Amino acid sequence: MAGGGFTTTGGGGKDFEAKITPIVIISCIMAATGGLMFGYDVGVSGGVTSMPPFLKKFFPEVFRKTVEEEGVKSNYCKYDNEGLQLFTSSLYLAGLTATFFASYTTRRLGRRLTMLIAGLFFIGGVTFNAAAQNLAMLIIGRILLGCGVGFANQAVPVFLSEIAPSRIRGALNILFQLNVTFGILFANLVNYGTNKIKGGWGWRVSLGLAGIPALLLTLGASLVVDTPNSLIERGRFEEGKSVLRKIRGTDNIEPEFLELVEASRVANEVKHPFRNILKRRNRPQLVISIALQIFQQFTGINAIMFYAPVLFNTLGFKNDASLYSAVITGAVNVLATMVSIYSVDKLGRRMLLLEAGVQMFFSQMVVAVILGFKVKDHSEDLSKGFAALVVVMVCIFVSAFAWSWGPLGWLIPSETFPLETRSAGQSVTVCVNLLFTFVIAQAFLSMLCHFKFGIFFFFSGWVLIMSTFVLFLVPETKNVPIEEMTERVWKQHWLWKRFIEDDYVKDEKVANDKGFDPASQL
After folding, report:
1. Could you give the CA distance from residue 270 to residue 265 in angstroms, rounded to a whole number?
2. pTM to 2 decimal places
3. Closest Cα to residue 86, out of 146, 43, 149?
4. Which of 256, 289, 448, 456 could lock onto 16 through a cystine, CB 3.0 to 4.6 A?
5. Is 502 exposed, middle or buried (0-12, 13-18, 19+ CB in 10 A)?
6. Any alpha helices (H) in 164-208, and if so which ranges?
7. Which of 254, 242, 176 is nearest to 412 (CA)?
8. What pLDDT is attached to residue 308?
9. Nearest to 32 by CA among 426, 407, 365
């Protein structure tokens, strides 16, 4: 792996030499296990909430609805329960709160330590969930898992973007999303197996096996090195230089090191990063990051992934069949994310987002039409052929999301913020993502009850809106070094350059007046 050398070209004629070193690959793989934990949490909740023993113990009202002889006749409303939705969504509400604390630790304590804290939260949450005797223990466990999600989603994408050479930054960053998809698939397979366990305790195994990715993340975070950006930002210049030399696989690191020192100087002058991120020059990154997170959730993907077994049950699949269908969509999710790893640094971010928009819009419209004609509220006429077509269309939708909005919703924000606002920017990104994940998780089953098949028309309308946003307002960032984004991306965009130029002219004048020389930090 160490033999693949290349030169990363920055703006202004700067060449940053870098090789694809084993330490970079290993560090990225271990850090990305945070995504494995996140994905498992997403996938496991939908499976256990479709298991009768779990529903009978914690949600008896829903259990009574789903038992045919006692249940309601409405196909779309039998899982509509606020408590059941809270079980899923409480994780994301806790993550939303935790991300503000994670922003501080990422900036002051480093990316590595923040990932370690996330791993410890995950282990605590798994313990509570697997041993739950009542709903309170279950919710406490989900809240601890949510804290882990908040810390991991804050630190891991930034870690991956900073440690990777710019030429393969997109591919390595998407390891996080790939592990999310592996986590979802692993959870679906576990749910399919544990549902067959006699005695009604299979759900404990499903929730308890989350300990595997939790331990992997904790172990990985204790072994990896922190990023040069983080070390230099905290004043540890010699250590940062040493790590930079190791991860780049070359002694010719001076140009990149000096640029990191300069970025660190600017970052350390910012005493209030959350206030700074609201400045006019940071408006483009902030607007795009917030929009991408909102749009990512309004594709409808998490509604499908959270509740895939429940959704397929609603559409007339029996319990085993619904879990099996969820496994299929999980496998498609993994394979399509691998496509993204291969293509993101070749085709670019915009191309993947726009192509996926067309594919997601088409597939959701087809599903809505089929359900509108074949699955009525109090009766169903979904033949095997149409049922298979629904699964195929859901897989087409999932594949499009997996090579576009899934990974790129995390990649683009993590690579576009300057160092002085990177932790704050990632915090806002995670916060908005978890807020709208919570909204969708809490509302989806109620929306399904009231919108019925129209829920797919609702999400397809949002896909049309977000594709238009990408077409006009999201610039291409492939192969651009992170610290060169301002010059090579934002100042070249037809709209965003208006926000950048005036502020940077002012700041450069102040820096020149102070006579700062990055080399003085050596």
Report:
1. 9
2. 0.77
3. 146
4. 256
5. exposed
6. 169-194, 202-208
7. 176
8. 67
9. 407
